[in-house]
Amino acid sequence: MDWEGPLAGLRVVEVSAFVAAPIGGMTLAQLGAEVIRIDPLGGNIDIGRWPLSPGGTSLYWTGLNKGKRSVTLALNKPEGQELAARLIAEAGILLTNLPAADGWMSYQALSTRRPDLIMLRLTGTHDGGNAVDYTVNAAVGFPIATGEDARPVNHVLPAWDLAAGLYLATGLLAAERRRSRTGQGGETTLALSDVAYATVANLGYVADVQVNGHVRPPLGNWLYGAFGRDFATKDGRHVMLAAISNRQWRAIGKATGLSAKLAMIGQLLDLDMEDEGHRYHAREAIGAVLAPWFAARTLAEIRAAFEGSGVLWGPYQDFGQMVQEDPRCSAANPLFAEIEQPGVGRVLAPASPLQPALPPRPAPVLGADTAAVLRQVLGLPEDRIAAYRAAGILQKEA
């Protein structure tokens, strides 16, 4: 493939752990940037997070660090910190979620080496406090609005980490564009909690409380403000059905043969079934009409009935069913290709969802690129690298 990717020539140093910052770095790497992840010797706190391969390699770590280069240094020693600082200065861009400090990795210290340095730093809260996805999510209302009663229900998707990672990538590119126009660097901070609170406000829930005095209640699997819910099938599966446009609403009636009965709901309840809000108010009656139709059919029969119909629907799948049955999670989708991941074996891996995209590349073995990066970026000779290795600043050769 001749195409290098839109970020070819951009070098970024990442010093991070867990989800958000690694997602930001990987997003850039998947678009062609050279992303050098620096970890302490032996790896950072996330090196062994579940799930693991049979050999003990973290599938989590390899999944979040595809396409990067890995450097490990003794970051608890001045010599290791000096090498890391030099790499950051040469790259001119640092992405990190480590706490701000007055030490060697502060913006103040690093910008003395590179006045136009760009630093993107993720914090927990806007005032520098600690927070993780699980604690932030608990505070922003969604677990209370999830489920069917007042008991909070957590979801397993780290939504705020993922959104923060994409914000970090966007912010880094915005800062790089500013530097290209003005020559100015700078430190940009992003608070994980701000990502969540901004999203809640952007979706209208803050205004709903302020303007209407309304707090969204838990609705189970009903779609709020429109018609949508889950239905059980004859063969023990479940599907999600939704209608967020009049065209989709009419398609449901036509595909199921229930148009006349669904229209009667509006007449009986004095509601306009062409109005999204009215359909929401009639949701219980609509569900009662549709449920027997789904219960009398297998998933395959429902799929056949809805094929090409314009109905907005999808089957519920566990991770195994998604991997084993869904062509969207296979090499039939241009997003995916098989790669040979060291420590894991052959696995299906995604490229960037932005298409066209560079082919997916495996995550590095921890520290595998240390010597090459020190040679190529800092110009260190082999004897100097060997001396650092002997002094315990670099990991010993296997």
Short description:
The protein is 41% helix and 15% strand. The protein has helices at residues 20-29, 59-64, 78-91, 107-111, 133-139, 142-145, 159-182, 192-202, 205-212, 246-256, 259-269, 276-281, 283-295, 299-306, 319-325, 370-378, 382-390, and strands at 11-15, 34-40, 69-73, 93-96, 118-123, 186-191, 227-232, 238-243, 312-315, 336-341, 345-350.
Can you give keywords for this protein?
elongated; single chain; six-stranded parallel sheet; 17 helices; three-stranded antiparallel sheet; 398 residues; alpha/beta; Rossmann fold; 2 domains; 41% helix
Structure, described:
The chain is of the alpha/beta class and 398 residues long. It has 2 domains: 11-200 and 330-390, Crotonobetainyl-coa:carnitine coa-transferase, domain 1 (Rossmann fold, 3-Layer(aba) Sandwich); 238-315, no CATH class. 41% of the residues lie in helices and 15% in strands. The chain contains 17 helices and 11 strands. The strands form 3 sheets. The protein has a 6-stranded parallel sheet with strand order 3-2-1-4-5-6, with helices on both faces. The protein is elongated and about 85 Å long.
